[in-house]
Amino acid sequence: MRQQNTPTPLPLENIKVLELGQLIAGPYCGQVLADFGANVVKVEPPGKGDAMRQWGEADRVSGDPLWWNVIGRNKQSLTLDLRQPRGQDVLRQLAKHADVIIENFRPGTMERWGLSYEELSRHNPKLVMVRVTGFGQDGPYATRAGFASVCEAMGGLRYLSGYPDRPPVRVGISIGDTLAGLHAALGTMMALHQRERSGQGQVVDSSIFESVLAMMESLIPEYARAGKVRERSGSFLPKIAPSNAYPARDGRDVIIGANQDTVFRRLCEAMGQPRLADHPDYATHRARGENQQAIDDLVAAWTQQHDASHIVDILAEAGVPAGLVFRAPDMLDDPHFQARKSIVEVPDRHGQPLPMQNVFPRLSTTPGSIRSVGPALGEHTHTVLTDWLAFSADTLDALRADNVI
C-alpha cells in the first residue's frame, strides 16, 4: 500500500490556486486540483483555521482529527484575516499571481470585502474564480445558508433515499458537497482550457443543489412526460430486476445485478435453473420489471443456500456482476484494492503511515499523487508571502502583530 513515486511533471503543477473556502464543498475542489499537482494555497482565519480541522474521528494515539489529512492533502496553509482591510489588501496582491480562486462563502461576501471578481480580474484578467454555494450566485434562494443536507433534499436525492414505508434518509456521507466540489473542479478545467484560447478568465458557479440535480437521471422528464413521480424503493430500482441485495447463508448480503437479458440468462444457468430465462414472466427486461418481487424471491431462495463469498465466486465465473457490501476493513484487506493501490499509506505529520484513498481518476503518463497530508495551520504563511509577494521579515512581523496573519 505504499505510495509510489509519480512521474513529473504533474498535469497541473503550473497552476496557482488560492482556496478561500471552508468545510467540504470548496475545499474538495481544491483537493482534486492539488492531487494533480496544482499549487493550492489554503487561506484560513488566523488562530482557528478551517472547521474541518476539528471534524471527524480522532487518531487513537495523537488525538488529532483524521479527516483534515485527506481534504487538506497536498495543500499549503496560509493564515490571513479576510475580515480586516489589510488582510483583504494582501489577498488582492496574491490574486494578481493566481490562476484560480476558490471560494464558498455566501453570495455577496466577497463583494462586501472588496474582493469581487470584477475587482480582482481588473488586475488579473486571466483569473478564474470558482464560486461554490448551496443555491448558486443568483435566484431568490441565493443568500440562504446552504448545507449539503438541505441542498441534497432540494436536488431530489433525499426524497429517493430509503424505504417507501419510512421517512427519507440521508446518505451516510456529505455527497452533495463532494458533487459540488467535483463539478467545480470540472468547471475549473473547462475555464482554464477556454483561457488558453481567449486569454480571459471567467466565473465558475457550482451549486450543491444543482450538482445533486445533475445526478437525478430521468427524474424530471419522467414526471413531465409520463406523469411519474419517482419514489423511494429501498435497496432496488423500480422495474430493474434482478438487481438487489440478496441474503446469503452466512448472514451477509450479496449485491447482484443481472437485469440485462444476456446477463440474466447467465444468472439462471449459475443458479441451476436455465429454463427461467425463457419463462414469459422473466424473458425480457420489461417482463422482469413487472414481476420484480417474484424474481427477487427466486434469487434470494438460491442465495440463502450458499455463503456470500461462494456466491460471488460462482457468479464471477459465470460473468454475472456480483459483490459483497464493503466496509473500511474489507477495503484494506481486499486484493483488488491492494493490486490497484486504491488505498495508499502517506506519512502523517508525526511520520506514521496513514492509509487513505488514492488519487482518482488515473492518468497513464501524468497521474496525480499524494505528496503530503493536510498541513498545520499557517505552516506555509511565511513561504507563500515571501515567494509570491516578496514580503520582508518586517512586513510579516507587522502583519503578525496585528493578527492579520
From TrEMBL:
Q: Say which domain of life the source belongs to.
A: Bacteria
Which UniProt keywords are present, listed alphabetically? Transferase
- Write down the InterPro entries for this protein, in alphabetical order: CoA-transferase_III_domain (IPR050483), CoA-Trfase_fam_III (IPR003673), CoA-Trfase_III_dom3_sf (IPR044855), CoA-Trfase_III_dom_1_sf (IPR023606)
SUPFAM superfamilies per record: CoA-transferase family III (CaiB/BaiF) (SSF89796)
Listed GO MF terms: CoA-transferase activity
Q: Which residues form a coiled coil?
A: none
Q: What is the name of this protein?
A: CoA transferase
